[in-house]
Amino acid sequence: MSLFHSNTAFTASALDIEAEDIQYFLSLMYGAIVVALLLFQRLFSFFRVRTYILLTCSLSILILLGISLTRDPFLIGILRVVEGIFCVLEGACFLPLLMMQIRHAKSRTIAYFFLYTFMLTGSTLTTSLLKESIMDYGWQDMIHVVLYWHLIVIAIALLLLNNNRLGKKFPLYQLDLASCLFLLISLSCGAYVLIYGRKYYWFEHANITINFALSLIFGALFMIKQKTVKRPLFHFEILRYKNVIFGVTLFFLFYIIRSCLNNVYTVMATVWKWPWHYIIDVQYINVFGTILGVGSSGFLLLRDVSPKYIFGFGFLILATSCFLFVPTFYPDTTIWAIGLPLFIQGIGQGWLFTPLVIYILTGVESHHVGNAGLMGTTARFWSTNVGFALIQNVSYVLNQKHYIQLEQTLNTSNTLTINYWDTLMEKYAGIYGDQIASRIASKSISGTLSQQATLISNMEIFTYLGILGILITGLIFLFGPAKTLFMRLRIPYL
User: Fold this and answer.
1) Per-residue pLDDT, 1
2) Is the separation of the CB atoms in 462 and 271 below 8 Å?
3) Is the separation of the CB atoms in 314 and 347 below 8 Å?
């Protein structure tokens, strides 16, 4: 799942494919994960542990083989949806197994820290492991590498696990598969609108309009079905819990700020022209920061420190990293300049992620914990796609704006422009002739302007995101005192 997470545009530039296509295939899988979580507990209760792992791994292997053998985008999309379902069915079972092995009063919290550490660092780790197969062989061999990992999991399950159950067997009947289909269609169509909206000029294109309508229709059908069936898969009563509302809101804002990291890796590849394998190695700076952030917030959470302080300092760290990124966007930056904000950004995301999940789960009654977790996963699905769409659209608008502004400075009265043009003409005229040299020089200047516009746009974006992080931090720390003051002022009038 985390193969190209936060690396979408960078991976697209490295593999010379559309960023929207990678993001949409990722979203198809993510949407399927959301749907599969509705059925996970029923399926896990029906099968024995080892049988369950062997079955899901075997089916995942067959799906990966299918993906490696086809080039049809539509068929790949369908297989990605199915892969997402078995991805979460395979992976989610390891969380309760891990909880059972941890002898601690807060075993669930510790298990979640392990889980989300792998999720946050997985994109870099998996891309690093697969880069050799991509660069030296091909994408089919890359998929085969993932397939081999599943074989390792099967071997471990056969050698180390018994075939006992973790709980009472629950028969598979009255599964509301229609609701699952409604939700899957709604999520897939909604993701299509967000990801491809700018490319197709939003509602000017029929595909965007149709997918938007389908997303609303099937989303409404899912909600109506859940309100009317006797045993709903999702209980909307969890929306009454303030922890869920606050947690989901903070998750949404967290992902909006986190989505800017994609721009950093894109600039590395397209503007600074760093080699792909070098960019992957640079990402380990962020990974080390993430591990430090997870460990630090985990220590505070196990010490029962108030979530207000954890969230407040977490968003402050993210805001600081955004402001530190701003002065690094110049043409000849160095790894030493970009390394510090990249490390601090990793600390911020690692600091916030698991406490946000725990905050959502601990604020609800025990029989609603599963739905609260699903609510958090759904929030991450939408915020990932909204963050991608928002950053893509803002980057496009700002790039156009700054490109036009820079282009207006190019005139014959500008000494720098004249000198740069003469240098380019002298470089190419002796090889291609004056006419072709003039075209190459014009294209070179246009490319330079585009790169400069990208750098200036990112300075602006990270400044705005830094301000957003400061505002969120202020609201977190001031919300409680402001609410208390409001109630005191209100009491005499009650």
Assistant:
1) 44
2) no
3) no
Closest CA to 88 of 381, 488, 428, 439: 381
Most confident of 147-151, 275-279, 289-293, 431-435: 289-293
Which residues form the domain of 22? 1-173
Residues 6+ apart with CB under 8 A from 241: 363, 364, 368, 372
pLDDT band at 6 (very low <50, low <70, confident <90, very high): very low
**CATH code, domain with 93:** 1.20.1250
The radius of gyration of the chain from alpha carbons, rounded to an integer in Å, stands at 25
Residues 1 and 56 both lie in one domain: yes
Task: Residue 57: count other Cβ atoms within 10 Å of its Cβ.
Answer: 21
How far apart are alpha carbons 43 and 55 in whole angstroms?
A: 11
Q: Is residue 280 situated within a structural domain?
A: no
The per-residue pLDDT for range 443-471, each reduced to its tens digit, is: 777 777 888 888 888 899 999 999 999 99
Buried b (16+ CB within 10 A) or exposed e, 81-115: bbbbbbbbbbbbbeeeebbeeeeeeeebbbbbbbb
Residue 4 φ then ψ, to 5°: -120, 25
- Do residues 4 and 22 touch, judged by C-beta distance below 8 A? yes
Dist CA 194 CA 57 (whole Å):
32
- Helices and strands, number each (H, E), in the chain: 17, 0
* Residue 290 DSSP SS3: helix
- Produce one character per residue of 327-338: b if its CB has 16 or more CB atoms within 10 Å, e if not: ebbeeebeeebb
Of 396, 342, 353, residue with least CA distance to 376: 353
CA distances from 233 to 55, 214, 228, 348, 377 (A): 23, 21, 11, 34, 15
Higher pLDDT, 319 or 263: 319
Q: Give 371's contacts (C-beta < 8 A, 6+ positions apart).
A: 234, 235, 238, 364
Whether residue 199 sits in one domain with residue 153 = no
